[in-house]
């Protein structure tokens, strides 16, 4: 399994809540899970770990807050681009938890300007793939002692 899949697995294992699904072990199993849909409990766990509201999470996964609330009211899993965007974020959270050790550190670090991101706040960058990659790269540099 690649490093991102391992970090996503770690996050899902720790945060699947009452959702009943087997945590994938391969990229193809993750593909199947994303096509089936990610449970809303995963979205809530991501919001909690980031220290953001559902409204902010909706913006991070590039849907309107009302669409996300409708998913919760209908108890509908996140699918398609929504699931893919949430997968990107939980991959980042898996890395952050591995590097920063606990959720309190993750929340704090994600909300503060980071010198390795030219003073930008990680939460402001993770609404797209390139920004998320920049944050993951910085976290990996920190993990390996290469702090910019």
TrEMBL record:
This is DUF2384 domain-containing protein. Residues 31-90 form the Antitoxin Xre-like helix-turn-helix domain. It holds the Pfam family Xre-like-HTH. It comes from the Bacteria. InterPro entries: Antitox_Xre, Xre-like_HTH, Xre/MbcA/ParS-like_toxin-bd. It comes from Tahibacter harae. Residues 96-145 form the Antitoxin Xre/MbcA/ParS-like toxin-binding domain.
């Amino acid at each position: 399994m690649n490093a991102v899949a391992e970090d996503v697995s770690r996050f899902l294992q720790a945060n699947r809540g009452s959702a009943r699904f087997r945590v994938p072990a391969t990229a193809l199993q993750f593909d199947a899970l994303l096509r089936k849909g990610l449970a809303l409990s995963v979205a809530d766990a991501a919001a909690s770990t980031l220290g953001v509201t559902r409204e902010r999470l909706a913006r991070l996964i590039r849907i309107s807050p009302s669409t996300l609330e409708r998913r919760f009211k209908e108890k509908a899993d996140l699918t398609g681009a929504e699931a893919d965007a949430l997968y990107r974020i939980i991959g980042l959270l898996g890395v952050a938890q591995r590097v920063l050790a606990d959720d309190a550190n993750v929340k704090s670090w994600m909300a503060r300007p980071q010198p390795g991101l030219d003073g930008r706040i990680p939460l402001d960058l993770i609404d797209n793939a390139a920004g998320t990659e920049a944050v993951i790269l910085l976290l990996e540099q920190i993990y390996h002692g290469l702090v910019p």
